[in-house]
Amino acid sequence: MKNRKMMTVKILLSLFVVFAFALQAQAGETYKLALSLAITGPTSDAGNPYSKGVEDYFKYVNDMGLLGDDKIECTIRDDQYKTSVTQRNFEDFLDMGIVFYLNYSTGSTMAMKKDFEEEKMPVLPASFHAGNLVDSNYIFLPIASYSAQAIGLAEYVVNHHAGGGTPKIAMYLHPSAFGRGPLADVKKAIAAGLKVDLVEVVEHAKDLDNTATLKRLLSKGVQYVISQTIQSPVATLLKDASRLGITAKSFGEKGKLTFLGCHYTGGSDLVALAGAAAEGFHWTTSYTITSEPGPGTDAQMALAKKYGRDMKAASSHNYANGVMVAQVAAEAILRAKAKGKKITKETLYEEMLGMNGINAFYPVTTVGPVTYSKTDKAGVDTLQLYVVKDGTFRSVGAPFIPEFAK
User: Fold this and answer.
1) 394 shares a domain with 255
2) Which segments of 70-109 are extended strands (E)?
3) What is the CA angle 125-89-29, rounded to 5?
4) pLDDT, tens digit, 9 for 90 and up, residues 43-81
5) Is residue 1 one of the residues assigned to a domain?
6) Residue in 243, 237, 183, 174 with CA at minimum distance from that of residue 204
7) Is residue 193 domain-shared with residue 333, that is, in the same domain?
8) Which residues 6+ apart lie within 8 Å of 283 measured at CB?
9) Which of 14, 122, 370, 390 has its CA 20 to 30 A from that of 217?
10) Residues 162 and 261 reside in one and the same domain
C-alpha cells in the first residue's frame, strides 16, 4: 500500500513537471530590448512622447500576439539627456541580455559608438545626425539625416524662389554636434551645384531677443532662414520676426524672411509655443502627421487611445517617431522568426541589413519605406514638406528625396 502511494506521488510529480514544461513552452520566448532617453530634463518635450510611442507599440505587439506566443520586454529608463547616465544604463541593459537597443541623443550615440561596435549591438537612435554613421556598422538612422533634411529644404527654396537671382539663405543652428552637423553637408551640396548663397550661420545662444540678429540678416539680403535645432528657440525667433513685421506672407516675399526647419524644430508643439507667429513656417520630416488624414493618422490615434494617451501625446510627431523605431525592431524580430532563426543581436542585425528592395519595410508612420543595407543605414530617404496654415501643419506637394543628399 505504501509503495502504491509512493508510486502515485511520483507519477503526480512527473505529471506536474511535464505540465510545467508545457506551460513554459506555451508561454513562448521573451526578447529583451531597451531604451534610454530624456523623459525629463532638456529635450524632454520630444523624449517624453517618444518614450510613450515605444512603450505603446511594444504593448500592442504583445497584446495582439503579433509574435505568436513570444513577447517583447523593453526596459525604458530616463537619462535626463546626460551621456554618463546613458552609458551606465547601457551597461545595465547588456547585463539583462538585450538583443536590440534604442538610444536617443546625438551626444550619447557618438560617445558610445565604439561600445556598439564591440558589442555588435544593432542600435536605432532618436538622433538623425549623419555623423552617427561615420565609422559605424551597427547604428541605423530611423529616417533621413538632419543633413538630408536641410539640403531638401534648400532645394525647395531653389525650386520655388521668386524674384530672380540666387536665393540667399542663413542657417540657424543649435550649438552642438546635433545642430552643426548639416552645415558642412549643405556646403558640399552648394559646391556640387545647389544654387543657393549661404550668407550667414547663426548658432543661437539663450538670448530671449533676436532683434539684432534678424535685422542683420535682412541687411545682408537674406530671404530664407533654415533652422536645425529644437522647437523653443525657433518659436522665439518666429515671435520676434512677427513682432518686427518681417515675416514673409508668401514664399520668398521681397524684403521679408521665410522660415524653414528640420524635424525637431516643428510639429504641434511649435504651434503651441509660437502661436500665430508660426504661420507660414515650412518644416520637413519623414513622418506622417496627425493633422493630415490618412491611414497613418488613424493608426496613430487608435494606438494612443488604446493605451490611454492624452491628445498632446497622441498628436505628437515624436510619439510617431517612437512608434516607428519600435515597429522596425519588432519587424526585424518577426522576419528572423519567419526564417526559423534564433533571435539574437546577430540575427536581428542581419535582418536590418536585409530591409531593402522588395524586402523594404512600409510602416504607416512614415511617408516612404524603411530601407537599410551594408552601405546605407539611413532608413526612410523620403521627406515631406509641411507648412503652417491657419494654425495647423499641412502637407505641401508630394513626398520627395533630396537630389543633393548623396
Assistant:
1) yes
2) 71-78, 100-102
3) 80
4) 899 999 999 999 999 999 999 999 999 999 999 999 999
5) no
6) 174
7) no
8) 260, 261, 262, 265, 266, 267, 270, 385, 386, 387, 388, 393
9) 390
10) yes
| Structure confidence by residue, pLDDT tens digits, 209-236 | 899 999 999 999 999 999 999 999 999 9
Residue 52 domain-assigned (yes or no): yes
Integer angstrom CA distances of residue 398 from 181, 190, 367, 383, 387: 26, 24, 9, 9, 13
Q: Which three cell numbers stand for residue 31?
A: 526578447
Model confidence band, residue 35 (pLDDT cutoffs 50, 70, 90): very high
On whether both 256 and 392 belong to a single domain, the answer is yes
- 154 lies in the same domain as 59: no
If you search the block for the grid coordinates 547604428, which residue do you land on? 139
- Whether residue 38 lies inside any domain: the answer is yes
All cell numbers assigned to 258:
521665410
176: its cell numbers? 552642438
Model confidence pTM above 0.85: yes
| Residue 270 and residue 340 in one domain | no
Give the per-residue pLDDT at 163: 73
Which range of residues forms the domain containing residue 270?
A: 147-285+385-400
